[in-house]
Amino acid sequence: MRITVDMNLCESHGQCVFAAPEIFSFDDEDHLVHEAAPADALLDKAEKAAAVCPVRAITVLPAAS
Ligand code: SF4
């Protein structure tokens, strides 16, 4: 899958980090960083993270099958 985060929308709330810490984290300066192409096994977590983001900044594109 592919994940994009619109950093113009992201307000560093961190809900995505709690929902899917395998994918999302904060760097040393509290900027959100994320895996751009995480394993498809993490799809449920990625979609959960996208759903809890209060500003809908996360887009999850499942791999074409
Ligand atoms: S939940 Fe949304 S606003 Fe919060 S850090 Fe993640 S992408 Fe940014």
Structure description:
This protein has 65 residues and is α+β, with helices and mostly antiparallel strands. The chain has a single domain, classed as Alpha-Beta Plaits. The protein contains 2 helices and 4 strands, in the order βαββαβ. The strands form 2 sheets. It has a two-stranded antiparallel ribbon with strand order 1-4. The chain has a two-stranded antiparallel sheet with strand order 2-3. The radius of gyration is 11 Å and the shape is globular. The termini are close together. The relative contact order is 0.34. Iron/sulfur cluster (SF4) binds next to helix 1. The site of iron/sulfur cluster (SF4) has 14 residues, from helix 1.
Fill in the keyword field for this structure.
Alpha-Beta Plaits; 3Fe4S_ferredoxin; 3Fe-4S; electron transport; 2 helices; 65 residues; iron; alpha+beta; binds iron/sulfur cluster; 23% helix; transport
Give the arrangement of secondary structure elements.
Layout: E1 2-5, H1 15-19, E2 24-26, E3 32-34, H2 43-52, E4 58-61
Antiparallel strand pairs: 1-4, 2-3
Bound molecules: iron/sulfur cluster.
